[in-house]
């Protein structure tokens, strides 16, 4: 499974946007994009989802019990 940091960075580069341009279009601060692309783990899920929605994706909590079934 691809890491979030790699996914966002690769997709952003595919659409030829700088981090600043991408942050503006996603409606988040530049620091949010930087933290995601650096692989930081303490991220706000709502902000991450604003970024992922640019690519038609979203993250949601998953119950570990559901994964084992």
List keywords for this structure.
single chain, 69 residues, mainly alpha, 434 Repressor (Amino-terminal Domain), 59% helix
Write the CATH architecture name: Orthogonal Bundle
For CATH, the homologous superfamily is named as lambda repressor-like DNA-binding domains
**Percent range for β-strand residues:** under 5%
CA gyration radius, whole angstroms? 13 Å
Stretches where pLDDT is under 50 for at least 5 consecutive residues are none
The beta-strand count equals 0
> How does the overall form come out from the CA principal axes?
elongated
Q: Can you put this structure into words, describing what you see?
A:
There is one protein chain. The chain has 69 residues and is an all-alpha fold. It has one domain: Orthogonal Bundle (434 Repressor (Amino-terminal Domain)). Helix content is 59%, strand content 0%. Helix 2 crosses helix 3. It is elongated, with a radius of gyration of 13 Å. It starts with a helix and ends with a helix. 14% of the residues are buried. The mean pLDDT is 91.
Strand-helix topology:
Elements: H1 4-14, H2 19-26, H3 30-37, H4 45-53, H5 64-68
Briefly characterize the structure.
This protein is an all-alpha fold and 69 residues long. The protein has helices spanning 4-14, 19-26, 30-37, 45-53, 64-68. It has one domain (4-54): 434 Repressor (Amino-terminal Domain).
């Amino acid at each position: 499974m691809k890491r979030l940091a790699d996914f966002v960075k690769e997709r952003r580069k595919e659409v030829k946007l700088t981090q600043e341009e991408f942050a503006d279009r996603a409606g988040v601060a530049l620091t949010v994009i930087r933290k995601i692309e650096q692989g930081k783990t303490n991220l706000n899920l709502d902000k991450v989802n604003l970024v992922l929605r640019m690519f038609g994706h979203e993250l949601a909590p998953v119950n570990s019990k559901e994964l084992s079934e």
